[in-house]
From TrEMBL:
Phylogenetic lineage: Bacteria, Pseudomonadati, Pseudomonadota, Alphaproteobacteria, Acetobacterales
Signal peptide annotation: 1-22
Subcellular location: Periplasm
Full protein name: ABC transporter substrate-binding protein
PANTHER family: D,D-DIPEPTIDE-BINDING PERIPLASMIC PROTEIN DDPA-RELATED, PERIPLASMIC BINDING COMPONENT OF ABC TRANSPORTER
UniProt key word RNA-binding: no
């Protein structure tokens, strides 16, 4: 009642005061993210919400443009030696962190090293690096053991540059400072996990004098303040959007789209050209999914259409099946061994395979996020599938932040561990072997589930050294066949997530995730 009284009082203000209020409102963006910002370290966690947060406050050395080509961001110039072993980079003049300290080459080196320990392309780059040096404050150099043709692709793979003192934090430990040089500051003292995150415009930021192009180009910050308002319930968020209490809902629930389309003040858009891939991660370090025969037994009964329709409803433009190991529509996508997903679904055969695998009724703890409706729907389908196959399932529902914390545990399920969880991975990340984190088979250094696959690792190295795209595709086909033999995870289909915003919000950069620069309110 008190809030309604305040709104009524605001409506009764004299007309002369309203233009000033409207002008102030246009400088504030009220945004509902896909989930809670529980873990704000984009290196320690692979969550997309942490990455979206990172794009606001940290700048990058390179960014992908809308053709997915690396373009310089913090870098002013680069050169490579004739033998392609030494790369030299010079930073743009005037780059300053939020605390007023200039960005230096040593900051870049420390950031690359920390990022590199947790990302596939980064791990490859570090393994090939002989030395990184900073000849002066505005330069750094990387000397390689052998040529690496994906150097710029690696540095465009979301290397967020932090001050050296922060970047020296171990990659497996969360940072406690959030100081960057990007277009917005993170107001940590106003951050309340589960409620809000606040960002204010960085007056020191100097955007490139270029048009924005996906993650590249000029990053113009038109808002004085960006407010993330955490609303786990999609209906509440959509209602707030309709009442002009928020400006942008990142990922509304699919069954609410018809309601929003009827409101002339709301635009529903599918800005995502690549999509995300749904998946069920499996823990390879303990029973029962350390058993390859059991993992294989899941495939004959897995129907991707069940997963995508549960997550996105009956709107065919929002999903695609089948989805193999690499993102459909991208160059490495192929049909090798895809019949394991496209052939007739056979529950009886799958149940026989479960019995023949030696499954001993071990408990399966399936984690599901309560605050991500689409992912929760995927988890519910997975839960039903596991139960129909005779697995002893415990459906463990929790908020996403808790799930992210728990999935790092390698303890047995009796001591708080886990067996499986559902998530989505952005299509651009899993489009090829270079950046495909869930496909890594490097055990303790792999993605959550920690699969071990010498065959996949060897083929990945071959792919990185392949002479051309046809050679890469041949290797990608081999990798997909092996992946369906070893089953590092279960792909559940390709999603194209809709977004919704007030028509007063304009010039949003099209992407599968929110990009805040260039956007404005009118």
């Amino acid at each position: 009642m008190r809030r309604r009284s305040l709104l009524a009082a605001t409506a009764a203000l004299p007309a002369l005061a309203r233009p000033a209020l409207a002008q102030d409102a246009n400088r504030v963006l009220r945004f509902v993210p896909e989930g809670n910002l529980n873990n704000p370290d984009p290196v320690w966690t692979t969550t997309t919400v942490a990455r979206n947060h990172a794009l606001l406050i940290w700048d990058m050395l390179y960014g992908l443009d809308d053709t997915y080509t690396p373009r310089p961001q913090m870098v002013e110039a680069q050169e490579v030696s004739d033998d392609r072993l030494t790369w030299r980079f010079r930073l743009r003049e005037g780059l300053v962190f939020h605390d007023g300290i200039p960005v230096r080459g040593v900051d870049c080196i420390a950031s690359i090293q920390r990022w590199g320990r947790r990302r596939p392309l980064g791990q490859t780059l570090l393994s090939l690096t002989e030395e990184m040096t900073a000849p002066d404050d505005r330069s750094f150099a990387i000397r390689l053991k052998r040529p690496f043709g994906l150097m710029l692709d690696a540095l465009a793979n979301q290397v967020f540059v932090m001050p050296e003192r922060i970047a020296r934090t171990d990659a497996f430990t969360q940072i406690t400072e959030y100081v960057g040089s990007g277009p917005y500051r993170f107001e940590r003292e106003q951050w309340v996990s589960g409620s809000q995150a606040i960002y204010t415009r960085n007056e020191r930021y100097r955007p490139r004098e270029e048009a924005p192009s996906f993650l590249a180009g000029g990053k113009q910050a038109h808002f004085d303040r960006v407010e993330w308002r955490i609303m786990p319930d999609s209906a509440t968020a959509v209602s707030a959007l309709g009442n002009n209490e928020v400006d942008w809902v990142q990922q509304p629930q699919a069954d609410l789209l018809p309601l929003m389309r009827r409101n002339p003040q709301i635009r529903v858009a599918v800005n995502d050209r690549i999509g995300v891939i749904g998946m069920v991660a499996l823990n390879h370090t303990q029973p029962p999914f350390n058993n390859q025969a059991l993992r294989q037994a899941l495939l004959p009964a897995l129907d991707q259409k069940d997963f995508v329709t549960a997550a996105l409803g009956a709107e065919p433009e929002l999903f695609r099946t089948p989805a193999g190991i690499f993102t459909p529509g991208m160059p490495m996508a192929n049909d090798e061994a895809l019949e394991v997903l496209t052939g007739p679904r056979d529950l009886a055969r799958a149940r026989r395979m479960v019995a023949e695998s030696g499954y001993a009724h071990e408990r399966v703890v399936l984690m599901a996020p309560t605050d991500y409706p689409a992912t929760m729907a995927i988890a519910q389908v997975a839960n039903d599938l596991f139960r129909r196959l005779g697995l002893n399932v415990e459906f463990a529902a929790m908020d996403w932040g808790t799930l992210v914390q728990r999935r790092s545990s390698k303890e047995p399920v009796e001591r708080g561990g886990w067996s499986a969880f559902c998530t989505t991975y952005e299509g651009l990340t899993v489009a090829d072997p270079a950046t495909h984190i869930p496909l890594r088979g490097n055990g303790p250094a792999a993605w959550f589930g920690w699969p071990v696959s010498p065959r996949l690792e060897a083929l990945r190295e071959q792919w990185l050294d392949a002479a051309d795209r046809p050679a890469q595709l041949t290797i990608a086909r081999q990798m997909q066949r092996i992946a369906f033999e070893e089953v590092p995870y279960l792909p559940t289909g390709q999603h194209f997530n809709p977004t919704a915003y007030r028509t007063s919000v304009q010039d949003i950069v099209p992407a599968s995730f929110p990009i805040f620069w260039n956007a404005r309110k009118v």
